[in-house]
Design brief:
four-stranded antiparallel sheet; 13% helix; 1 helix
Length: 142
């Protein structure tokens, strides 16, 4: 068996004078829970009462309208718009009458659109009153 020579200078742990100093702080006690106010608070958004929702979907795209806002999914990419950042939502049939076109106008004026193909024109005609009812619930005209 061959023996290797001991490592030269620079190998191994640092000498004591170069070792890091221990922390200069005392451990803190764990955080206490904040006292709860005596009044009732609104439930968090995920526990808010569920309102109506709308979903239109095809092979690649989807439009969702619910209590949180409007979401578009296009070819696997999702963008969500919360109600406070939406100036308006517009929708119509595509020029060939085979798709639903939904547009969101952002508060800063930017415009986003999603197109969902309907398998049949009757399906497209079903989407219009559903979408109108849901949008009317969250964004009443008045």
């Amino acid at each position: 068996m061959t023996q290797h020579p001991p490592p030269g200078p620079g190998f191994g742990p640092p000498p004591p004078q170069y070792a890091p100093a221990p922390p200069a702080y005392a451990p803190q006690p764990p955080y206490a829970q904040a006292p709860q106010p005596p009044y009732a608070q609104a439930p968090p958004p995920q526990q808010a009462a569920a309102g109506p929702d709308f979903l239109a979907v095809d092979k690649r795209n989807a439009v969702v309208v619910d209590a949180s806002g409007v979401a578009f999914e296009t070819s696997g990419h999702t963008v969500e718009f919360r109600w406070p950042e939406i100036r308006g939502v517009h929708y119509r049939a595509s020029p060939d009458g085979k798709a639903l076109m939904v547009a969101v106008v952002h508060m800063d004026g930017r415009f986003y659109e999603c197109v969902v193909q309907a398998r049949a024109r009757t399906r497209l005609q079903e989407w219009f009153p559903q979408l109108a009812r849901v949008l009317g619930h969250y964004r009443p005209v008045g």
